[in-house]
Amino acid sequence: MFDEKTETRDEGGADATARPCQTIVFDGVGVERDGRRALDGVSLTLSERRIGVVGLNGSGKSTLLKAIVGLAPVSVGSLTVDGRDVAREARAVRAATGLLFQNPDDQIVFPIVADDLAFGLKNHGWSRAETGERVAAALARLGVEALARRRIHELSGGEKQLVALAGLLAIEPKTLLFDEPTSQLDLRNRNRFARLLHALPEQAIVVAHDLDLLVDFERVIVLEAGRVAFDGAAAAAIAFHRERSA
Ligand SMILES: Nc1ncnc2c1ncn2[C@@H]1O[C@H](COP(=O)(O)OP(=O)(O)OP(=O)(O)O)[C@@H](O)[C@H]1O
Ligand SMILES: [Mg+2]
Question: How many domains does the chain have?
């Protein structure tokens, strides 16, 4: 489905056009959900271009991503993105930081694909014509331009995931947060997503059970019961996680 030719925007590899990374600082962060600590005492300074997050179901991965964009309120400690407090300056943080939700249905507001993507661009200052062009380009980049007038709720799980991804890419945030981006993709689209991710000039934080997606990442964090259990190079983190999951 992806267009192989438009997948890589740069010819000299990802580093040739790498965009500046934001610095995300968790300082003793606790997040409470329903009276339980979904994140507990998390302290991290994230400034690498490729960061992976792994962990068992319920370990706090989605909560970590949601906290970064102010969707999971911090109850203890502080969390800043490029010096902006996510609670006090949520709007500015969200303008520069986009989240691809684990469940694409959470991303959808309008019934028709193109209208929904245009809505996502509404507060970014582009004209109606520019917005239309951006939406079309983002869909084409993922090879799903034929879905533009379809009803989102009638799409397959993988098609919805691709549309949600197009919506995120259209905004061109400085930092992209991906929550299990390949969970519903077939093998071909999964492999194409992996190549797209490799070539993206933007900073990306990727939550994945698909560990192969993270092997060349600069840094991988392992969460266990809302705490950081391991933080280091991809190979060592993945080995740690595999051992703990055995
Ligand atoms: N909105 C919510 N209300 C109540 N509890 C929540 C909510 N969101 C998450 N939790 C709880 O917080 C904990 C962490 O959830 P989270 O979704 O961050 O896990 P996860 O690591 O992303 O898991 P998975 O791999 O299954 O997606 C879980 O115990 C979950 O039940
Ligand atoms: Mg999750």
Answer: 1
